[in-house]
Design brief:
The complex is a heterodimer. Chain A is an alpha/beta fold. Chain A has helices at about 5-10, 40-50, 80-95, 110-115, 145-155, 180-190, 205-210, 215-220, 240-245, 255-265, 315-325, 345-350, 355-365, 380-390, 390-400, 450-455, and strands at about 15, 25, 30-35, 60, 95-100, 125, 140-145, 160, 165-170, 200-205, 230-235, 275-280, 290, 300, 340-345, 375, 400-405, 425, 440-445. Chain A is globular, with a radius of gyration of 22 Å. The relative contact order of chain A is 0.13. Chain B contains nine helices and seven strands. The chains are: A alpha/beta, B alpha/beta. The structure holds iron/sulfur cluster. Iron/sulfur cluster binds near residues 63, 108 and 430 of chain A. Iron/sulfur cluster binds near residues 64, 108, 131 and 412 of chain A.
Chain lengths: ~475, ~220
C-alpha cells in the first residue's frame, strides 16, 4: 500500500523502531532554539555533564523577548534581559550559532529557518515552540516540543516519538477576491475545532493550496497547531524549489539536482490512505475574524456575534458565554461594527514580505483611523530590510503606523508591546487566548488585508469596505515613478 | 524522575474546557531561567477571582486536578507542567489532552490520565458535593477511585511504564548511541548544516524609534 507524505518523511528518519508500544526513535535534521524554552534545557545538559551532539544542526535566534524599538539600547526589562543573556552564554558555551538582536539574520525563528534555506523538504525539524509547524509548508515534518525534549534533542539529535495519524485537508477550487491563506486556515479551524486535529499530522492539498505562494503556505501550516495538530504539511513542488533555489543554505550544483530528485518523491502516493479526510470549497471562504478566545471561535466578517443560547452543547455554550464576557461583546452585534484600539501586523503567521506588501497596498494614499494604534512588525530583520528597500516603510509611516524592528512583539506580549486591560486589537497573529496580547486584552484574529482595512476604518473591515475591488496580492509594489 | 505508581490526594474540580497553556501559566512567567518555583504563576489570572476553585480552602491543597476536555491546548511551554507540579499536583485527569502537553507531562512525572467525559462529570459531582474529597489515581491497576466509585483510567503502555519506573528519556536513548552514529553516516551529504554559517551579506540594521510603547492606554483614551 502507498504511503502518505508524512509517513515517507517519518520512515526516512527512523533510527530505531520501537516495539511493544515503545516509540520510534527519530533523527532530527534541524533543531531551532530561542531564549524562552531553552535555558532549563541547557541547565539540564550541564547538570548531567552532557554536550550538544550536533551544534551544526542547531540554530538559535532571539525573538520572543526582544524589544521592537531602541534595539541598540540595553533591554529595559531585567527578566527579558536575563533570558537573552542566558541564551548568549549558552550558545557560546555549547558552540551554537546564534543570531542576536541587531544582526541582519535575527528574527522570529520560523522565518529565519526558511529564509536562510535551512528549512527544506523531507526534513524533520523541531523547536521548543508550537508554531514550528510553519516549516511543514516545505514538506518537512516539523513540530513543537517541550523543554525536556529540547534537552533530549540537544543531547542526542533524536526524539522518541509515537507515530501520528494522518489527516488530509483538501481545499478545492479558487479563493474569492479578498480572501487569503489566513482565511483558509481560520475557516478550517472553525470547521474542525481546536481539538479536531489532535493526534494528527495534517496534509493540506487541493487546487487552492497548490496555487499559494510559499509564504501563504507557511501561514496555513503555522496555524495547524491551532486545530490541535502537532504538524501540518504541504507536498513540495516547483513553487517550493523556486523559493529555495539560491538561498544561502540550499544545496548547489550537482547536489541541488540530487536533492530536487529526492524532493519530487515526497508526495502522498495515489493509493495511500489517510486516517481522516476533510474537504473545503475555497470559493465559499470569506474573510474570517474570530469573536471569542480560541481560534476555533471564528466567523465570516459578514456575520454577527453569536448567541450562546443557540449552542446546543453545554460545555461549548458555557465557553462561548465566558468568551463573550471576556471579549466584551453583545450577541447579535454585526462583526463589522466592532471598533478596535490597536491593529497589530506581524508574527510568524503574517509578518512576511508578502503580507507587508499587501498591507502597504491598502495603506497607500490613506490615513489610519483616529485613535487607532497601528503596529507593523516584520518577522525578521531581513524582511525589514527588504521592505525598506521597496519603500514600504514610508507608506507605513505616512499612513500613521509604527514601523518596528523584528520579533514576536504583540503576538504574545512578552516584550513591552502589549494591550492594556480592556483594549481590543485586530491582529494578524495566531492566538486570541485570554491575556495573550496583554492582561485583559481582547484579540480578534484576522488576515493582513482585514487588519489593513480595519486600520483605515477603525472597525473590523474588509478591503471591499474601502471600495477596493481587486484585493491586493503579495507581489512587489510598482516602483514609484521618479518625480 | 520520581516514580509514580499510586497517588491519593484532594481532588480539584475544574469545570472548564479548553484550558490552554496561557491560562495554566501566562507568558509573563516564561521569562524565568529557572526550573522550579512556578507555583505562583499557576492559573494566575483566575486566582485573583475569590470564587476560583483553588481559592476555596477545601481545595487549596489539592493534588489531583479534574478538568474539562482539551486541557493544555496552545503553546508548547513545559512551564505549564512545572507550574502544576510545583503547586503540588501529581495528576491531571481530563477526557482529552493536547498532545504536546501530554508529552511534556509524561516527561516530568506528572500523570495526564484520560477518563471518559461521563466519568469526569461524575468526579466533578462527588468533589463539589463534598469539597476536600480525596481521589486515588492508581496507575498499576489503571483506575481512579473516589468515595465509592471506581472508573477506568487510560494511559498508554509506554508512558505508564516510564512513569512507574521513573525513567529518564535521555539516558534511555543514549543506550542506543551507536545506532544514532550509524544513522548519521548514511545521511545525504546535501542535507543542510547550520555550521559553517552561510548568509546574505551582513547589513546594518537600524533601530526603530518612535512612539514609545506604553503598557497602558492609547494616548487619547
Ligand atoms: S510570533 Fe508568536 S506564535 Fe510565532 S514564534 Fe513568536 S510568539 Fe510564537
Amino acid at each position: 500500500m502507498g504511503r502518505t507524505l508524512a509517513e515517507k518523511v517519518w520512515d526516512a528518519h527512523i533510527v530505531r523502531r520501537g516495539s511493544d508500544g515503545a516509540p520510534d526513535l527519530l533523527y532530527i535534521d534541524l533543531h531551532l532554539v530561542h531564549e524562552v524554552t531553552s535555558p532549563q534545557a541547557f541547565d539540564g545538559l550541564r547538570l548531567a555533564g552532557r554536550r550538544v551532539r550536533r551544534p551544526d544542526l542547531t540554530l538559535a535566534t532571539e525573538d520572543h523577548n526582544t524589544p521592537t524599538v531602541d534595539i541598540d539600547l540595553p533591554i529595559a526589562d531585567p527578566t527579558s534581559r536575563t533570558q537573552i543573556e542566558t541564551l548568549r552564554r549558552n550558545a557560546a558555551e555549547f558552540g551554537i550559532r546564534l543570531h542576536s538582536l541587531g544582526d541582519a539574520d535575527q528574527g522570529i525563528v520560523h522565518q529565519v529557518g526558511p529564509q536562510l534555506g535551512l528549512t527544506q523538504p523531507g526534513m524533520t525539524i523541531v523547536c521548543g515552540d508550537s508554531h514550528t509547524s510553519t516549516h511543514g509548508a516545505f514538506g518537512a515534518l516539523a513540530f513543537g516540543i517541550g523543554t525536556s525534549e529540547v534537552e533530549h534533542v540537544l543531547a542526542t539529535q533524536t526524539l522518541p516519538l509515537q507515530p501520528f495519524k494522518t489527516m488530509a485537508i483538501t481545499v478545492d477550487g479558487r479563493l474569492p477576491a479578498g480572501a487569503t491563506a489566513k482565511d483558509i486556515i481560520l475557516a478550517i479551524i472553525a470547521k474542525i475545532g481546536t481539538g479536531g486535529g489532535q493526534g494528527y499530522v495534517l496534509e493540506y492539498r487541493g487546487e487552492a493550496i497548490r496555487s499559494l505562494s510559499m509564504e501563504a503556505r507557511m501561514t496555513i501550516c503555522n496555524m495547524s497547531i491551532e486545530a490541535g495538530a502537532r504538524a501540518g504539511m504541504i507536498a513540495p513542488d516547483e513553487t517550493t524549489f523556486a523559493y529555495l533555489k539560491g538561498r544561502p543554505h540550499a544545496p548547489e550544483g550537482a547536489e541541488w539536482d540530487e536533492a530536487v530528485a529526492y524532493w519530487r518523491t515526497l508526495r502522498t502516493d495515489d493509493d495511500a490512505v489517510f486516517d481522516a479526510e476533510v474537504v473545503l470549497d475555497a470559493a465559499e471562504i470569506e474573510p474570517y475574524v474570530t469573536w471569542g478566545t480560541n481560534p476555533g471561535q471564528g466567523l465570516p466578517l459578514s456575520g454577527r456575534v453569536p448567541d450562546p443560547a443557540d449552542i446546543a452543547d453545554e460545555t461549548e455554550r458555557a465557553a462561548a458565554q465566558r468568551a463573550l464576557e471576556y471579549m466584551g461583546l453583545v450577541p447579535g452585534t454585526p462583526l463589522r461594527e466592532i471598533a478596535v484600539d490597536t491593529v497589530f501586523i506581524g508574527s510568524c503567521t503574517n509578518g512576511r514580505i508578502e503580507d507587508l506588501r499587501q498591507v502597504a497596498k491598502v495603506f497607500q494614499g490613506r490615513r489610519k483611523a483616529d485613535g487607532v494604534r497601528v503596529l507593523v512588525v516584520p518577522s525578521s530583520a531581513r524582511v525589514r530590510l527588504q521592505a525598506e528597500a521597496e519603500g514600504l516603510d514610508k507608506i507605513f509611516t505616512e499612513f500613521g503606523a509604527e514601523w518596528r524592528n523584528a520579533g514576536c512583539s504583540m503576538c504574545l506580549g512578552m516584550n513591552p508591546d502589549q494591550l492594556a486591560p480592556g483594549e481590543r486589537s485586530a491582529s494578524t497573529s495566531n492566538r486570541n487566548f485570554e491575556g495573550r496580547q496583554g492582561k485583559g486584552g481582547r484579540t480578534h484574529l484576522v488576515s493582513p488585508l482585514v487588519a489593513a482595512a480595519t486600520a483605515v476604518r477603525g472597525t473590523l473591515s474588509s478591503v471591499a469596505d474601502l471600495g477596493i475591488e481587486d484585493a491586493p496580492d503579495g507581489s512587489p509594489l510598482p516602483v514609484p515613478a521618479l518625480a | 524522575m520520581e516514580k509514580f505508581t499510586e497517588h491519593t490526594g484532594v481532588g480539584v474540580p475544574l469545570r472548564r474546557s479548553n484550558v490552554d497553556t496561557d491560562q495554566i501559566i501566562p507568558a509573563l512567567y516564561l521569562k524565568r531561567v529557572t526550573r522550579t518555583g512556578f507555583e505562583d504563576g499557576l492559573f494566575s489570572a483566575w486566582r485573583s477571582d475569590p470564587g476560583f476553585v483553588l481559592n476555596q480552602p477545601a481545595y487549596a491543597g489539592g493534588s489531583v486536578l479534574v478538568a474539562g476536555p482539551d486541557f493544555g491546548t496552545g503553546s508548547s511551554r513545559e512551564h505549564a507542567v512545572w507550574a502544576l507540579k510545583d503547586y503540588g499536583f501529581r495528576a491531571v485527569l481530563s477526557s482529552r489532552f493536547a498532545d504536546i502537553f501530554r508529552g511534556n507531562a509524561g516527561k516530568q512525572g506528572l500523570l495526564a490520565g484520560q477518563l471518559s467525559q461521563e466519568d469526569v462529570e461524575l468526579l466533578w459531582k462527588l468533589l463539589e458535593t463534598n469539597p476536600g474529597t480525596e481521589v486515588t489515581v492508581d496507575l498499576v491497576r489503571r483506575q481512579v477511585r473516589c468515595v465509592d466509585v471506581t472508573v477506568p483510567l487510560h494511559v498508554d503502555d509506554y508512558t505508564r511504564w516510564r512513569l512507574m519506573e521513573g525513567l529518564d528519556d535521555i539516558g534511555l536513548t543514549l543506550q542506543h548511541e551507536d545506532e544514532i552514529a550509524e544513522f548519521e553516516e548514511h545521511r545525504a551529504t546535501w542535507r543542510p548544516r547550520t555550521l559553517p554559517a552561510k548568509h546574505l551579506p551582513k547589513v546594518e540594521v537600524r533601530s526603530a524609534r518612535g512612539v514609545p510603547v506604553e503598557i497602558g492606554r492609547r494616548p487619547d483614551a
